[in-house]
Amino acid sequence: MTEMSAAASAAYAGTTGFKAPGTTPARAPRGYAPGLATVNFGIYIALLTPVMVSMAFKVQHITASAAEATSALGLVSGVGALFALVANPLAGRLSDRTTSRFGMRRPWILGGGIVGLGALALIGSATSVWVVLIGWCLAQASLNAVLAAANATLPDQVPTESRGRVSGLVGITTPLAILGGSFLTNFIAGDFLRFVAPGVIALVFIVLFVLVLKDRRLAEKPAERFTVGQFLGSFVFNPRKHPDFGWTWLTKFLIMFGYAGIATFLPLFLTEKFALDEQTAITTILLANMASTIAMAVSSPLGGFLSDRFGKRRPFVAAAGLIMVVGLVLLAFAPTIAVVIVAQAVIGFGAGSFFSVDLALATEVLPNPDDTAKDLGVLNMANALPQSIAPAIAPTVIALGAGTAIGGYSLWYLIGAVIAAAGAVLVYRIKGVR
């Protein structure tokens, strides 16, 4: 990375010893790593609880048939993910330019958390699909803005050689959030609390992170105006100029496509294939997520540690993707609930390793040290796009496969496995990272 000019560096002021973007901090501030982990846990429990469990049953409660519920779920999930797609890089870009006396990132983190809680409350009280859709779009936009600003603090605060460990700690928050959300849903009967309770948890952890974060402060507004062209530039990059960044984006997109199709339709998969009632399906999802979390608890910190230890990222990403493929195939042909739980454990083991190393790899291929949040936001589009595209096409694939020997949901999981396998292979196109 290139260092900033002295004049550009002078435009920044930190609450404690500032290091300019593009330079490596000596060490992370005390409390930063657990703070980043807890805020990620809070955001993921607010976002993933609806994705994993509560949204599927919410649309079932306000629609007239199973087919209508599947279509409504695809619509809400797909359009909402598009808002995440826009909000993540845009909020990251704007946080890079924020001159608030409270810091560059903190206003976006706190503001997004407050709006997100309100949006989740709207969904919980909704009686029509359209109100659910509006609420989910607001929730996705606001909570992804929090993620963009919070995760942009990683290269601000942590030296390169330690990012795998911090990334591994952050990675374990995803399965913990899934498990926590499943646990909450298992013991909460009403739709309103199923959405509001995760939002409250998220806001509490957001407030705690904002209080401990020694955020950097941009003392002078950037001379260049934020134009429409720059706005559109928040969502694009030049893969010819930055091929490693492009391959990283594509790898993430493909692996996340395979992963994104699992959670959204798992409740409907269980109720249709195994004829489970709602409460039994919720309990089964809780058990499956417990198995997945245990597997992730092993693979996530282990993957981050070994990645730092050997100074390599690509082999861990590739292995993680292929392990997820095995789990997806197992899930597609699962003959019993027990096999579904085992498949979720296998997928969780692969996902834990992927999430732990992926963020560390991403920070090493960023094109511009002065646009860290924007570039991480562009990479996060590779997380959001599959969550939009997958639910949008899933109802068609499931309907086409319903009349076959394989079955609609099984066909969907097999397609996800093939796409994830492609991502695992293409990671070796990244040349600037070992």
TrEMBL record:
The chain crosses the membrane at residues 36-57, 69-87, 108-127, 133-154, 166-189, 195-213, 249-270, 282-304, 316-347, 410-428. It is found in: Cell membrane. It is a multi-pass membrane protein. Gene3D superfamilies: MFS general substrate transporter like domains. SUPFAM superfamilies: MFS general substrate transporter. Pfam families: MFS_1. Keywords: Membrane, Transmembrane, Transmembrane helix. Its main location: membrane. Residues 35-434 form the Major facilitator superfamily (MFS) profile domain. The keyword Transport does not apply. PANTHER family: MAJOR FACILITATOR SUPERFAMILY (MFS) PROFILE DOMAIN-CONTAINING PROTEIN, PTHR23528. This is MFS transporter. It comes from Microbacterium gilvum. The lineage of its organism: Bacteria, Bacillati, Actinomycetota, Actinomycetes, Micrococcales.
